[in-house]
Design a protein that fits this description.
The protein is mainly α and 296 residues long. It has helices spanning 3-28, 31-57, 72-100, 108-136, 139-168, 173-200, 207-220, 253-270, and strands at residues 226-235, 238-247, 274-282.
């Protein structure tokens, strides 16, 4: 399936889990189940925004965006992280209020059953989305999948806590569990925001991709040709590498261009989604970077 298809399914599952978890809270009056339902609202908003950003990222390059729109996916991850912060603060507010004024729980068994059903849906979808996201190098899909997994563990903690409340009769456990849930999703939210910000700053491609690039270049590198100033970056699902290829000054332009074409093809075949930019230079010419006179 395409990435957008997964995200459309995620929207549908989020609507279903919101219904189930809201019902679980309604019948039990448990603030920890309310916190679980609030996190599912974040899942819905995150999936919808991710779908929009993935659609934008798929647009072809244009005059204003000659390198494409691939980085749009990073905004999805950051947006979902911000939503998680908002949800966590709401959960803490509701939990503190209940901690100061404890209330008996109702129909806990039915509430737990509804929560288990919703967690099963989230877990199955998250596992499938994470596999697809890694294969397609989609940060938006991986972020949505990781958040769904967090939701599953949150639900598991809530269920365990409610069982403990039933066994001990300690009503204060319910809001304490809700606060623990909020702190956990705050951690996940920070991870998403930090990862999105880091990726927007032209992070180098993954180590395995760099190793493949090195291996390809070593296959061409010999006394006649050498490579240097190899720099990589990633933007969404796209990968880029820039490098210099040094060759004998006596070569014709046609011969140099033919060899460069072979190198580009080998690189793009070795690393899916890679785009290579190769500058041709004579063997006795060096390019200089990071000049001290550079105002940047």
């Amino acid at each position: 399936m395409e990435i957008r298809t997964y995200l459309k399914i995620s929207v549908g599952v989020a609507l279903a889990t919101i219904t189930l978890k809201t019902g679980a809270w309604w019948v039990s009056d448990s603030v920890s189940l309310l916190s679980d339902a609030m996190e599912s609202l974040v899942n819905l908003a995150g999936a919808m925004f991710a779908l929009m950003m993935v659609t934008i990222a798929a647009r072809p390059p244009d005059e204003d965006h000659p390198y494409g729109h691939h980085k749009a996916e990073y905004f999805s991850s950051g947006f979902e992280g911000v939503l998680i912060f908002a949800a966590a603060l709401g959960i803490i507010w509701a939990a503190v209020d209940r901690l100061l004024d404890p209330q008996p729980l109702q129909a806990v068994g039915l509430g737990i059953m509804l929560s288990v059903v919703s967690s099963t849906l989230n877990g199955a979808l998250a596992w499938s989305m994470l596999r697809k996201g890694r294969a397609a190098r989609s940060m938006a899909l991986q972020a949505d999948a990781r958040h769904l997994f967090t939701d599953v563990w949150t639900s598991a903690g809530v269920i365990a806590g409610l069982l403990a409340v039933g066994a001990t009769g300690w009503q204060w456990l319910d809001p304490v569990i809700a606060i623990a849930v909020a702190l956990n999703i705050l951690r996940e939210g920070w991870s998403l925001v930090a990862g999105s910000a880091d990726a927007l700053m032209d992070r180098a491609i993954e180590p395995e991709g760099q190793a493949q690039i090195k291996q390809v270049l070593e296959g061409f590198d010999h006394q006649t040709i050498r490579f240097d100033h190899v720099v990589t970056r990633r933007a969404g699902q796209r990968r880029f590498v820039d490098l210099h290829m040094h060759m004998p000054a006596a070569w014709t332009l046609g011969r140099a261009a033919a060899v460069r074409g072979e190198v580009e093809q080998a690189l793009m075949s070795a690393v899916p989604g890679l785009r290579a930019t190769i500058q041709l230079l004579p063997l006795d010419v060096e390019a200089h970077f990071n000049d001290q006179r550079d105002p940047l």
